[in-house]
Amino acid sequence: MAWEEWEQLKAVAAERHTTQMQLNQLPAAPGGSTGGTDGGGGAGILKHSHGPWTRAAGTADDLRTSTARSKTELSSAHAGVGDGSAGLVSLGALKSVLASWERRLGAVRDECDALGPTLCRVARDMGEVDVKVGAKADSVKVADKRRGE
User: Fold this and answer.
1) Which residues of 49-61 are buried (b: 16+ CB within 10 A; e: fewer)?
2) Pairwise CA distance, residues 12 & 16, whole Å
3) 71 closest CA partner among 95, 94, 104, 113
4) Rama region for 2: left / alpha / beta (φ>0; ψ in -120 to 50; rest)
5) How far apart are CA 68 and CA 56, in angstroms?
6) Dihedral of CA 68/71/77/78: which sign?
7) How far is CA 107 from the centre of its chain?
8) 22: burial class by Cβ within 10 Å (0-12, 13-18, 19+)?
9) In contact, 105 and 71? CB cutoff 8 Å
10) Largest Cα–Cα distance of the chain, in whole Å?
11) Is 94 in contact with 139 (CB distance < 8 Å)?
12) Of 112, 105, 53, which is closest to residue 75 (Cα–Cα)?
């Protein structure tokens, strides 16, 4: 390939792939937009819902409660298993499995106990941030091109 041909191919490729800035947003309504309000011309107001965070916190609390209950029931179910079964080979394995499940259920319970309040705090904090950002955005005066401002 000749040098000139290479330069020509590069120029054609550059023309096809011009660098442009693109904002990820809905297309603007004809005639412009009035800013972040949903007055018909704009894309609407960005809203945050802390519902998913609150639901996740509730799920963590439910899981904490159920694992704590399961751990207690598991321990109760194994109470007295060793009585009258001394010398059985499976008794050692059963005790090992019980100890393993008690550790696992305890770890899940403890993790959920720590996670629930954190998720609630995120829901509260995100809501507070949204209110502050919304107030700042509302304080910005945007010229309305339709009214000649």
Assistant:
1) ebeebbebbeebb
2) 6
3) 104
4) beta
5) 18
6) negative
7) 22
8) exposed
9) yes
10) 95
11) no
12) 105
Best CA proximity match to 118, nearest among 54, 48, 51? 54
Spatial distance between the Cα atoms of 139 and 123, rounded to a whole number of angstroms: 25
Decide: pTM greater than 0.85.
Answer: no
Task: Give the chain's radius of gyration (CA, Å).
Answer: 31
Give the residue among 80, 57, 69 at the shortest CA–CA distance from 105.
69
Burial of 67 (0-12, 13-18, 19+ CB in 10 A): buried
| Residue 18, amino acid | T
Other CB atoms within a 10 A radius of the CB of residue 95 amount to 13
Helices marked H in 17-88? 51-78
Instruction: Enter the tokens of residue 71.
Output: 């751990």
Q: Are 112 and 104 in contact (CB under 8 A)?
A: no
Q: Within 13 Å of residue 71, how many CA atoms lie on the same side as its CB?
A: 18
Per-10-residue mean pLDDT, the chain, length 149: 76 68 56 46 54 86 93 86 71 86 93 92 78 76 67
Q: Which residue reads 């904090």 in tokens? A: 125
